[in-house]
UniProtKB/TrEMBL annotation:
<keyword id="KW-0479">Metal-binding</keyword>
<keyword id="KW-0276">Fatty acid metabolism</keyword>
<feature type="transmembrane region" description="Helical">
    <location>
        <begin position="177"/>
        <end position="198"/>
    </location>
</feature>
<feature type="transmembrane region" description="Helical">
    <location>
        <begin position="35"/>
        <end position="53"/>
    </location>
</feature>
<feature type="transmembrane region" description="Helical">
    <location>
        <begin position="92"/>
        <end position="114"/>
    </location>
</feature>
<feature type="transmembrane region" description="Helical">
    <location>
        <begin position="60"/>
        <end position="80"/>
    </location>
</feature>
<protein>
    <submittedName>
        <fullName>Acyl-CoA Z6 desaturase</fullName>
    </submittedName>
</protein>
<keyword id="KW-0444">Lipid biosynthesis</keyword>
<dbReference type="GO" id="GO:0004768">
    <property type="term" value="F:stearoyl-CoA 9-desaturase activity"/>
</dbReference>
<feature type="transmembrane region" description="Helical">
    <location>
        <begin position="204"/>
        <end position="223"/>
    </location>
</feature>
<dbReference type="InterPro" id="IPR005804">
    <property type="entry name" value="FA_desaturase_dom"/>
</dbReference>
<keyword id="KW-0560">Oxidoreductase</keyword>
<dbReference type="Pfam" id="PF00487">
    <property type="entry name" value="FA_desaturase"/>
</dbReference>
<keyword id="KW-0408">Iron</keyword>
<dbReference type="GO" id="GO:0005506">
    <property type="term" value="F:iron ion binding"/>
</dbReference>
<keyword id="KW-0812">Transmembrane</keyword>
<keyword id="KW-0472">Membrane</keyword>
């Protein structure tokens, strides 16, 4: 299994070289609909932040925090590690949970998310990358959602293999009913539960909901922006993705991004089983323990360390945890 994972990672890295960053001049075409929607939600979220320290019931804040964690997990454990990278398998009940969690994030469908993410890995930081980090921090963070996609993204996207996603009944159900599901799960339920169960006002509940949406969106977006800008590169110094602990904390474990781009099919998305702040990995491990998740793919320590020695920048926790010596890998 490990050699197949390593070969696939190397293939994706080589494919990315086929599309040069900024290969052709391109003029942004603003999507005014998206500007209005995201602009309103951000303003409403900021307004909701004021309610957090004034009007909001403590139960509303606690409930919203739980929903925030669930929505991030829906992206990281669901759309990302399960459906984008197939780094583990999930049974039907777990897939339904993750689909609902992802819907809670408001980030459209898991199918669309996985399609864009597969493009991102295959053509990372090139014109075919939906959130190409060579265009700047704002563009890779949220600006790419406010403009029409680059023609190269559309062209290369037509050749991406999505057959496994198209066959998935859970994702098909979400795609066919996306407006209804997102309306109920992301907007209506988080607003009405505080109103009916502990008397929160609609005005407060709605704006706290908007705050949760904005936090989830921006936390996840840090993977595309901050984790392609700030940090160390212990596994491959020749690519933009970095290791960034702040992103790890905000995204429940997705900040080990240099590692992830080198070994994208490791379900942990982190080196050496680094689970201290990796709540997403702990989530998957729990469901593996009860038999709902299986076939958890990992990369061996020796392969990880040797890759770090070959192409890394010399940083990384692996130095303190293990060493490569003649005859194999030994604990340090």
């Amino acid at each position: 299994m490990v050699p197949d994972v390593l070969r696939e990672a190397e293939r994706l890295h080589e494919d990315a070289k086929l599309v040069a960053p900024q290969a052709e001049p391109w003029k942004f075409q603003i999507s005014y609909t998206n500007v209005v929607i995201f602009g309103y939600l951000h303003l409403a979220g900021i307004y909701g932040l004021l309610f957090c320290v004034s009007k909001a019931h403590w139960a509303t804040l606690f409930f919203s925090f739980i929903l925030l964690v669930a929505s991030v997990i829906g992206v990281t454990a669901g759309a990302h590690r399960l459906w984008s990278h197939r780094s583990y398998k999930a049974n039907l009940p777990l897939q339904i949970i993750l689909m609902l969690f992802h819907s809670l994030s408001g980030q459209y469908t898991a199918f669309n998310w996985a399609r864009d993410h597969r493009l991102h890995h295959k053509y990372s930081d090139t014109d075919a990358d939906p959130h190409n980090a060579t265009r700047g921090f704002f563009y890779s963070h949220i600006g790419w959602l406010l403009v029409v996609k680059h023609p190269e993204v559309k062209r290369r996207g037509e050749a991406i293999d999505l057959s496994d996603l198209l066959r998935n009944p859970v994702l098909t159900f979400q795609r066919k009913n996306v407006v209804l599901i997102l309306s109920l799960v992301c907007y209506i339920m988080p607003t009405t539960v505080p109103m009916f169960f502990w008397g929160e006002t609609f005005h407060t509940a709605w704006h706290i909901m908007a705050l949760r949406f904005v936090l989830c969106l921006n936390f996840v977006s840090l993977i595309n922006s901050a984790a392609h800008t700030f940090g160390t590169k212990p596994y491959d110094k020749n690519i933009m993705p970095t290791q960034n602990m702040s992103v790890t904390l905000a995204t429940l474990g997705e900040g080990f991004h240099n590692y992830h781009h080198v070994f994208p099919f490791d379900y942990r998305a982190a080196e050496l089983g680094n689970n201290t702040f990796n709540l997403t990995t702990k989530f998957i491990d729990f469901f593996a323990l009860i038999g709902w998740a299986s076939d958890l793919k990992t990369v061996g320590q020796e392969s990880i360390v040797r890759r770090a020695e070959r192409t890394g920048d010399g940083s990384g926790s692996w130095k303190e945890e293990c060493k490569v010596v003649p005859g194999g890998l030994k604990s340090g």
